Amino acid sequence: MSEINSDLMLRASFKYLDRMSLKRDETLLIITEPPTDRRVAQALFDAALQKGAQPILSMTPYRGEHNMDPAPTLVAAMKAADAAITLIPYESADFYTRPFLEMLQSGTRMLGFLSGTAESLISLIYKHDFLITDRICEILEEVISKAKTIRIISPKGTEIQADLGGRPVQLNPGRVSLPGDEGYLPPGVVGQAPLEESWAGKIVFDAFAYPVGVLRNPITLEVKEGWVTDISGGREADRFKEWFESRKDPNIYRTCHYGFGINPSLKRLSGLKFLDERMYGLFDIGFGTNDLPCFQGQIRANGHTDGLMTEASVFYDDVCIFEKGEFIHPGIQPYLKPA
Fold first, then answer.
1. Quick one: how far is CA 152 from the chain centroid?
2. Burial level of 318, CB count in 10 A (0-12/13-18/19+)?
3. Which of 41, 29, 42 is nearest to 75 (CA)?
4. What sign does the dihedral 250-223-197-306 (CA atoms) show?
């Protein structure tokens, strides 16, 4: 990568702010928490200022735990801002908390960049071709919104299905424009929250599971009427099971959503869920909280986790659009060939 200088950071920040439709005189709250890369925060602040907006830069102490509520003073600022950027470390992700939901309900639009660095701002945002991921999102929304059922299989043994129930398609092109919109950069997850009680079958994760990390051995979950009834495998499965037990909340065992990774700019597993679930070719299934606007689910749990699998094949109403980790939908294929 060429040398990262202030001019390059500023140009990347303008591209970021364009993806959140920041306008003159709007209040932008930039939320940081150690070890946030302050180069990113400062560049976004400077770019917002040049656009005529009113940026506010905040920093709170490191939390290091998912779904811990932000400080009350920060919550008040989150609800009052026109737009917000959360640059916190992924291990402090709070997007399943009540205050975060209330921020969106108040009309603040949010475009986050968790664990972002100056290097990833350039490589994953400034150099990214948003035409590819924008178009894939549009096509998948059209396909999924018409379907009634989903079925997922994989060579490692996944065989599970669910009813979609008219739930909205969760898009993440990394773009927000309307009050209450929520999005994240880099772009790259498209999914949905099927009817919770309709999930039934077996799930085998062979790529990643949070908080276990990149997997050496598969983790198998049995699901009945939307509830995880068994977790099996080796030591990594034991760690996954221990995490579920540590939440001390039965709702954490409820299957809550699925998602396609659609970002061809991501080439290898990083061990960071927020990036890995976006990687083109991987398929995600999550558990726990899903009562957010993007999902319109019914589960409120003391946490949320996800696992990733390779070589998934996905069928909507028995029509396959994703075969062994590759989109075979004719509308999507042309956008992936140059990647």
1. 20
2. exposed
3. 29
4. positive
- Which stretches of 49-107 are assigned E, i.e. beta strand? 54-59, 83-86
Query: Going from the N-terminus, what domains does the chain have, and what CATH number goes with each?
Result: 6-126 (3.40.50.2300), 130-336 (no CATH)
Contact call for residues 218 and 276 (beta carbons, < 8 A): no
Nearest residue to 163 via CA among 140, 200, 195:
195
Q: Are 153 and 248 in contact (CB under 8 A)?
A: no
Q: How far is CA 146 from CA 139, 169, 215, 249, 261, in A?
A: 11, 10, 34, 34, 20
The predicted structure's pLDDT at residue 267: 87
| Mean pLDDT (whole number) for 141-153 | 97
Tokens of 44: 């976004």
Chain segment 198-241, per-residue pLDDT in tens: 999 999 999 999 999 999 999 999 999 999 999 999 999 999 99
- State pTM to two decimals: 0.89
Strand partners, 150: 162, 316
Burial class (CB in 10 A: 0-12, 13-18, 19+), 68: exposed
Query: Rounded to an integer, what is the distance from CA 130 to the centroid of its chain?
Result: 16
> Cβ of 246: how many Cβ atoms within 10 Å?
12
Q: Which two tokens stand for residue 229?
A: 């009834």
What is the average pLDDT value for the chain, to the nearest integer? 94
pLDDT for the residue numbered 2: 55
Q: Beta strands of the chain (E only): which ranges?
A: 27-32, 54-59, 83-86, 109-112, 149-153, 159-163, 169-170, 182-184, 189-192, 200-205, 208-209, 213-214, 219-224, 227-233, 255-261, 283-288, 304-309, 313-316, 319-323, 326-327
**74 within 8 A of 58, measured Cβ to Cβ:** yes
Distance CA 13, CA 2 (A): 17
Spell out the residues 6+ positions from residue 319 whose beta carbon is closer than 8 angstroms to its own: none
Q: Return the percentage of the chain with pLDDT > 70, whole number.
A: 99
DSSP β-bridge partners for residue 223: 201, 228
For residue 67, what pLDDT is reported?
82
